Amino acid sequence: MNHYLVFDIGGTEIKYGVITEDATLIFKDKFPSRGTTGGKYILEDILEKVALLSSYEPKGIAISSAGVINSSTGEVLSATNTIVDYIGMNVISYLKDRTNLDVSILNDVNAMALCETNVGAAKDSKFTIALTVGTGIGGAIVLNNRLIEGNGYNAGEFGLMRFNNQDYEQQAATSILVKNAQAVFGDTIKNGIDVFNLYDQKDEQAINLVNQFYDNLSVGIANLTFAFNPEVIVIGGGITGRDSFINELQSHVMAKLTPHLRKYTTLVAAKHKNDAGMIGAFFHYKNQYIR
């Protein structure tokens, strides 16, 4: 069976693994990202892992990455300061020239969406909207198993939609929930799990904060539903690990939809969690090189 190497590049860590042609991860690990040092150093670290995994005799390399990525040429078109000197790099040519392997690269949220529509929570959906909710809010659009990437490879930047003269993610990201909770409870709050623990303990202030978070998040999802009328909306991000998250969020979303649209709107939590970027990157590679 053929093997392929998969990488998911983030600003703080890089996940990597070995995947088979049937999209089964047979090995996975992670290492710290040298994003603040520079994009070149990230790629050099990837080359080290490629050499380390050479015993698998990989047929190609599939990459998921933060940033706006030209998935056809491999050029990084835009990126945040979590990875410096990344804009303008051509990841495909950089790695292909040094490994002589076929290389593909795709934006990380787009990769998550491809994973979930092929082998995840939105499998068999003909029209899927995907969102990741965390430090910010990312998004992707998949129609008939094909990504809608946009004219500048920037489609799905739902976090930058404007509500009340603010970015959507400035009101509805998990990081904002944590920030608001820290203003009330102090440094006892480290993350979203801490906030929801207080919520589950029926703390009145935590209940108000979480309900406001759900309400803000549901406004954007409802608007996306009115605009696109997707078959499935997949929500990813660490907070979706909460068992009741989707049901709680769905009640806020449905309250904002028309009775007609409620019948045709399904919210689901992403299935593959931290592996979704790597698996989705492979499906993009497969679409490009394996027929």
Explain how this protein is built.
- With 291 residues, this protein is of the alpha/beta class.
- The protein folds into 2 domains: 3-111 and 274-289, Nucleotidyltransferase, domain 5 (2-Layer Sandwich), CATH 3.30.420.40; 123-270, Nucleotidyltransferase, domain 5 (2-Layer Sandwich).
- It contains 10 helices and 14 strands.
- It has helices at residues 39-52, 91-99, 108-119, 169-172, 174-185, 192-200, 204-228, 245-254, 259-262, 276-289; strands spanning 3-9, 13-20, 25-32, 60-65, 68-69, 76-78, 102-107, 127-133, 137-143, 146-147, 162-163, 166-167, 232-236, 266-269.
- It has a 5-stranded mixed sheet, sandwiched between helices.
- Belongs to the ROK (NagC/XylR) family.
- It holds the Pfam family ROK.
- GO terms for molecular function: kinase activity.
- This is Transcriptional regulator/sugar kinase.
Strand content: 15-25%
CATH topology of the largest domain: the name is Nucleotidyltransferase, domain 5
According to DSSP, the number of beta strands is 14
Structural class: alpha/beta
Tags for this entry?
291 residues, alpha/beta, Nucleotidyltransferase, domain 5, 2 domains, five-stranded mixed sheet, globular
